[in-house]
């Protein structure tokens, strides 16, 4: 599946449905017959209520679209704690340039 992340941010349920619909359209547009779908879901920190809400909304939208199209999810992957570079400084790995700057200052 592939979808513009802004769709899921604006309306997670509809964004999830859009992702399935896009996969369906991409297959049928080239004469294929959609049999099943696989997902790769990437979201931020699920401990933040707004992120968990996006995640759950997208899952519900994906499930609804898959049922409507008889398009089962046969495999997938979920990756959480994917944050923007600004958030990296708060909860995770720093930008590589930060590490370089610290080494340069330590060498003085």
Detail the topology: elements first, then pairings:
Elements (H helix, E strand, L loop, with lengths): L4 H6 L1 H18 L7 E6 L6 H21 L3 E7 L5 H7 L4 H12 L1
Parallel strand pairs: 1-2
What do these coordinates show?
It is a single chain. The chain has 108 residues and is an alpha+beta fold. It is built from 5 helices and 2 strands, in the order ααβαβαα. α3 links the parallel β1 and β2. α2 packs parallel to α3. The chain is elongated and about 40 Å long. The C terminus is likely disordered.
Considering the chains and any ligands shown, give keywords for the structure.
disordered C terminus, elongated, single chain, 5 helices, two-stranded parallel ribbon, alpha+beta, 108 residues
- Overall mean pLDDT stands at 80
Number of strands: 2
Globally, the shape reads: elongated
Q: Uncertain spans, ≥5 residues at pLDDT below 50?
A: 87-107
Radius of gyration: 18 Å
Provide a quick synopsis of the model.
The chain contains five helices and two strands.
């Amino acid at each position: 599946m592939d979808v513009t992340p802004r769709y899921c941010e604006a309306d997670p349920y509809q964004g999830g449905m859009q992702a399935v619909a896009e996969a369906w359209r991409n297959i049928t547009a080239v004469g294929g017959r959609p049999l099943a779908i696989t997902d790769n879901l990437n979201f931020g920190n699920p401990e933040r209520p707004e992120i968990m809400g996006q995640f759950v909304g997208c899952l519900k939208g994906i499930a609804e679209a898959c049922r409507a199209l008889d398009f089962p999810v046969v495999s997938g992957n979920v990756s959480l704690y994917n944050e923007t570079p600004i958030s990296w400084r708060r909860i995770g790995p720093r930008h590589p340039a930060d590490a370089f700057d610290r080494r340069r200052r330590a060498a003085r």
